[in-house]
């Protein structure tokens, strides 16, 4: 019996022992489980601490708080003058669900905001919504008045507003933002992401002093010559930086909705038949392709027929002209004769080299595509030779001329400031494929200088700056095509040139839309009588601002060694 | 044993007091830091607005109006600006024959200092 009791006792003990072992084992498991969970939790905390204290620390070091970081960056000109800035304002909003007496609130608010109609405001305040705007970007006075009213349910919310201290000046370049601060045109649109996300101001190539001088002169010119519109641009011939870009009519950027029609940028979006200024390209092609020399003779005694149009000249001597004379007198007939020597294919090839055939390059999105001849054959070539049958933006023409006068190196226009450190690098990037040779460039500059000193652009001859230019008067085509009767024709007069001729620094284009003959122009409304003097006044004002040294050493510095320029009064070598 | 316990209690009290003091100092400094940060942000905002206002006041159109109204200045003509390097270099010295009166004056000036000197010497003696 006893062994059986002992046996039972032994079994019970071993069962208890195994139970105990099992409990210990599960306890150990639980402890291990909770230790692992704690470790994971601690690791997560450590990871978060590293994230906050190590990885994200540069945010704190920049010293800009959240409010500043959210501000859209300033746009400044090349001298650091603010063109667009962000102001912190407050906007008034209502929570209709909280408003106790909507009628009383509407009456009080109507006194504060006279533009609000009482019924419309009451309807808004009685709506079921939890948020309605009352006034965006309220002035500090209004903000204080809203505070003083103390209407429950009417609140102020911090807001931002884009401000343009110069109003309408450079409106087409800067562009505008919508009410929520997103760029919708111009630089504001082109650099929208940069302005919103990156630090530091955006420096443009514009010089606001030059911009103002040109704006001022153009406004006066539009008034004086009763023109419909006007536009002008100045560009650094080496870097392609656009120093000024004025398009009239313009609009006040602080009140853009008032004059949205004026948002059209004539410099980059408008395409126009450029007229006689294209003759520079024509002569450059002739010289570059080797079909003509300076002494080549072109007969302009008889008009040329292109389709139903009879091409004649305006006040050009009816005789044989040299190449220089053809450009100096701006002969349409001679231009055709020149083009006939190189033919349409060569013309098209060079137009591509001058960048005429593609959309212009600039950071802003308001860019116009050129209107090119459908069939670039003999007829098209003839009209293109004197600037008709092809419509391009003034930016196209300016960039092409910049290339021709800058020893063939055509700069790519830009609105971004080029620092002195990057200047040479940028210049070098244009030195790859010259559109014309340095020799052709020199000749063209010299002829253009002659046009200013003794040709159609005499009124732009500002002593000391060796201005070189070409004027152009183009008839505007009507809506139905054609140019209308002689008496009803509208003109676009243009001036394209630069200074100084010995080593060009700046090129510019000035255009007037349908200027009229006024007192002092002796019944003329051609470029030499209106746009040339305006360009002269502009150069006189901007050249000192741009730091161009006036030199009275005139043509000696042009150094035309080896160039046999035909005298104006002599016929050439009979090279017909 | 008792002494060490007593020391430990004293140390614990000191540590507690120190911690209490540091905590309140940190709270005060944090408050101060917040205020300074806010005033910096306000100052920056004011500078921002003042810069915008200054730019507005320096608008070239406005300055031109004021200059026309109150100044009698005119823009320099290119002919009024001369670059020093472009000035003709003086090749020879200009010789001007002296007129008799000038020669006489020179002679007087040459004699004068010695007479005054002798007078001064005499007075000193």
Kindly summarize this structure in a few lines:
Chain A has 576 residues and is an alpha+beta fold. Chain A has helices spanning 2-55, 57-61, 66-69, 102-112, 118-125, 140-149, 171-174, 186-190, 192-197, 208-224, 279-289, 323-328, 332-353, 378-385, 394-405, 420-429, 438-454, 531-545; strands at residues 75-76, 82-94, 132-138, 154-163, 202-203, 229-236, 242-248, 272-273, 297-299, 304-306, 309-311, 320-322, 391-392, 468-475, 491-499, 506-513.
Please, could you describe this protein's structure?
- Chain A has 576 residues and is α+β, with helices and mostly antiparallel strands.
- Chain A folds into 2 domains: 116 residues, Penicillin-binding protein 2a (Domain 2), CATH 3.90.1310; 347 residues, Beta-lactamase.
- Chain A is built from 18 helices and 16 strands.
- In chain A, helix 11 packs antiparallel against helix 17.
- Chain A is elongated, with a radius of gyration of 36 Å.
- The C terminus of chain A is likely disordered.
- The C terminus of chain B is likely disordered.
- Chain B has 3 helices and no strands.
- Chain B is an all-alpha fold.
- Chain B is elongated and about 120 Å long.
- At the A-B interface, strand 2, helix 10 and helix 18 of A face helix 1 and helix 2 of B.
SSE topology sketch:
The complex is a heterodimer of chains A (576) and B (125).
Chain A lengths: L1 H54 L1 H5 L4 H4 L5 E2 L5 E13 L7 H11 L5 H8 L6 E7 L1 H10 L4 E10 L7 H4 L11 H5 L1 H6 L4 E2 L4 H17 L4 E8 L5 E7 L23 E2 L5 H11 L7 E3 L4 E3 L2 E3 L8 E3 H6 L3 H22 L24 H8 L5 E2 L1 H12 L14 H10 L8 H17 L13 E8 L15 E9 L6 E8 L17 H15 L31
Parallel strand pairs in A: 1-5
Antiparallel strand pairs in A: 1-2, 2-3, 2-4, 6-7, 6-16, 8-13, 9-12, 10-11, 14-15, 15-16
Helix pairs in contact in A: 4-5, 10-18, 11-13, 11-17, 13-14
Chain B lengths: L1 H56 L2 H11 L29 H25 L1
Determine the oligomeric state from the structure.
Answer: heterodimer
CATH architecture of the largest domain in chain A: 3-Layer(aba) Sandwich
Main beta sheet strand tally, sense and closure of chain B: none
CATH topology of the largest domain in chain A: Beta-lactamase
Low-confidence stretches of chain A: 59-65, 556-576
Distance between the termini of chain A: 148 Å
Strand content of chain A: 15-25%
Radius of gyration based on Cα positions of chain B: 43 Å
The N- and C-terminal alpha carbons of chain B lie at a distance of 105 Å
Strand residues, percent of chain B:
under 5%
Biggest interface goes to: A-B, 34 and 25 residues
Number of DSSP strand runs of chain A:
16
- Give the biggest beta sheet of chain A: 5 strands, mixed
User: What share of residues of chain A is helical?
Assistant: 25-40%
Q: Please report the number of helical segments of chain A.
A: 18
